[in-house]
Amino acid sequence: MASSSMAEPGFGKILFQRPSTVVALVVFLAIVAACFLLPLLGITEIGGMSVRNRLTPPGAEYLLGADAFGRDLLGRLLVAGQTSLGIGLGVALLASVVGITIGLVAGFFRRLDTPLSRLIDAMMAFPDILLALSLVAIFGGTMVNVILALSAVYAPRIARIVRASTLVIRELPYVEAARALGTRTPTIMVTHVLRNIMSPILVQATFIFAYAMLAEAGLSFLGVGVDPRTPTWGIMVNEGRQFIDNAFFMILSPGIAIALSVLSLQIVGDGLRDALDPKLAKES
To answer: What parts of the sequence cross the membrane (predicted)?
Structure first.
């Protein structure tokens, strides 16, 4: 009989056994806290325009410098982060809901599997940024439309994972037993199927969070993202590129913010994958 000392390590122990995961999580939480708490506490703010201070380099008055309108880049960076992070989170949540719904239906009902699978394949055949660019160009560059467009782009990734897992789980004995006992199909789908495939969904949602932030930055840089009057990190990079020769600091801070956020989310996603899948944790 195995002793308790031979028990499998817990979720938290596996998640935080890599220093890189801990550092990435701390960095991402620090970015989120700075973007949402500092402006709320009045520690920093965008402030008004000042022609006299336009393109002021980083210093005591402006820690990150001032933009072409004389606005404080630090305050603008933090407020822009609220929009960029909000879009990333919104896309991750909406894409997960849509992907889970399509994947469960496709995997559980054999008659709907083929048409829904073809729909998933067709959506994934388009390059991500190209499809998002087309959808935003058609429906307009509002924050809601950007979230909807990016969710349409990334939902098939969730749907494919959910469908593949559902095809396996629906044939397992405990699902057959639930059917024999007369359990309603929606209850089986949620209680017996969905609950057992949440781990890969959570990991993929973390990656989609990062992908969405990067895609939003790309759309804003191309000028087809959210309204330019609503600051995002991508818009800040787009605004600063014309001054890159004499005020490169304008694109430096938003570029670093995008890179750190996306990289930290990717590393945290890898840590979640290892923590939620013991087999992968043992192999790594």
So the answer is: 20-44, 85-109, 129-155, 201-226, 246-269
| Helix extents (H) in the chain | 11-15, 19-41, 73-108, 110-125, 128-139, 143-169, 173-180, 185-187, 198-222, 233-240, 249-276, 278-283
Give mean pLDDT, residues 87-107: 94
What confidence score (pLDDT) does residue 278 get? 52
pLDDT band at residue 1 using 50, 70 and 90 as cut-offs: very low
Q: Has residue 62 been placed in a domain?
A: no
Q: Which domain covers residue 218, as residue numbers?
A: 86-227+267-277
Split into its structural domains, the chain has a count of 1
Interval 222-248: pLDDT, tens: 888 888 788 899 999 988 888 888 888
CA 161 – CA 172 distance, rounded (Å): 18
Q: What is the C-alpha separation between 142 and 191, in angstroms, rounded?
A: 37
Q: How far is CA 210 from CA 56, 132, 243, 246, 269, in A?
A: 32, 15, 27, 31, 9
Copy the structure tokens of residue 160.
């494919």
Residue 147, domain member (yes or no): yes
> 144: closest CA among 258, 226, 35?
226
pLDDT, tens digit, 9 for 90 and up, residues 34-66 = 999 887 776 665 656 777 878 888 888 888 888
Cα distance between residue 245 and residue 240, in whole Å: 10
